[in-house]
Model the fold of this input.
Amino acid sequence: MSTLKKLLACSALVFAASGAAAQPLPAYDLLLRGGHVIDAKNHIDAVMDVAIKDGRIAKVAPGLSPGDAIKAIDVRGMIVTPGLIDLHTHNYTGTGERGSYAGDLSVLPDGFTFRTGVTTVIDAGCAGWRNFEDFKDRVIDRSKTRILAMLNIVGSGMRGGRYEQNTFDMDGEATAKMALRYPGLIIGVKSAHFNGPEWTPNEQAVIAGTKANIPVMVDFGADRPTRPLYDLLTKKLRPGDIYTHMYSGLRQEQDPATLGPSKGFIDGRARGIYFDAGTGGGSFKFSLAVPMIQQGFKPDSLSTDLHVDSMNSATKDILNVASKFMAIGLTLQEVVADMTAHPAHEIRHDELGNLSVGSVADVAVLSIQKGRFGFTDMVNTKVDGTQKLVAELTLKDGKIVYDLNGLEALPWNAPQGDISQDKRWTSFPRPVPRPTDGVTLH
Ligand SMILES: [Zn+2]
Done:
C-alpha cells in the first residue's frame, strides 16, 4: 500500500471511530427538577432546577429541559440545599484506644453522614500535631465524606484527662507547623475539655491559629473564676474564632436575670465571635436555648458534636438537631443556612456550602415529614414538634451517594434504558449485562 493510501485508510478509520462515538452527550449529567432550592449564599429561596455536569453545579434556574440531561429526577415537594456541613464531629476512630475520642468514642463518618445529607464534616480536635498524620491515614484518606480537621492544641489530641490536662503538651508553635503542612485540610485549632485555672490552652490555640491563619474553636471546659467566659470572648479570642456548645449552660452562657445571653455572649458577638450549637451528649439545654432564641440570640451554625454517645442520646444526627431548632423558633431557611453557607464561612471555605455555578456538586435533597415528634436535651427534657427533616437524596461531587426511597431507580420490570453513562451521575450504576446474561446454560 502506498503511503498516501495508508494515510487515507488510517484517516478513514479515525473518522469511522470518531463517527461511532459522535453521539454527543447531553449538556448535563444530572438534573434535579422542581425542588425548593435554598442556597443562602446566593440568596435563592425558590422552586428551581439544579443541573450538574462533571461533578460541578452547571446551572440553577427554573424550567430547564429534562432532555438536556442524561438523567433527570423529579424532586417536586422537596427541599434542595447544598450538601450539609457538620462543623463539629469526632471521627478519629480505629486506634483501639478505649474511652477516647482518639479511639472508641469516635465514629467513622461514612456510616452517618450521607444518610443525613451531610457531605462535609469537621473533626473538632480529636488529633493533635503528634497524631494527626495517623488520623489522616486511618480515617481521612479512606473516607468518601469530605473530612476537614481542627487540630487539638494538645499534641496528643483528645486521648483523655491525663493528656488533655497536660499544659506542657499545649504547643502553639508545633501545632501551627503541622497545620501549615496541610493547608486546606487542617482548617482550625481546637481547645477543649480543660479543667485547670490557667489560660494556657486558649492562649496557645490563638498562637497556633494566628501563625497558621486559621480560626480557633473553643469548648471552654470547666467554669473557673480565674478565666471568665467574658474575658475569653472579649479579650482572648480573635474576631472569627468560634465558641461551641453555646447552649450548654455550663459556663455563664446565660444571664441569670434575663435568661437571655450573658454580657460575654453579647459583647463577643459584637466583636465577631461565632457561636456554634455543638449539641453533643451534654451540651444543649432547652432552658437556655428557648429564652436565648426568643431574645434573638440564635446560633451562627448548627452542629452535632457527633460521637458514640451523642448520636444515641438527645442529638442523634444533624437533621434531628435542625428539626429541634425549628421546633423552638428557627425557620427552615435559617437552619439550612446554619448547616451550609454559615459553617463554610466560619472555617473560611466559602467555596463549600453553596450551589454557585462551578461549585463542587455536593447536594442534599430533603423532605419535611409532618406529624407528632419529640425532641430532647441533655437533661432529658422535651419539646414537641410537628415537622422533621429527612434526607431523601445526597450527592457528593455530582454523584448520588444516598437515595432513601429509590428516587433515581426505575421499576425492576421496566426497560432500564441506556445504562452506559450511569457512572456520570450515580455511585450506584446499574450493572452492564454479562455476555452470558440471557443465555440458557446447561
Ligand atoms: Zn466535641
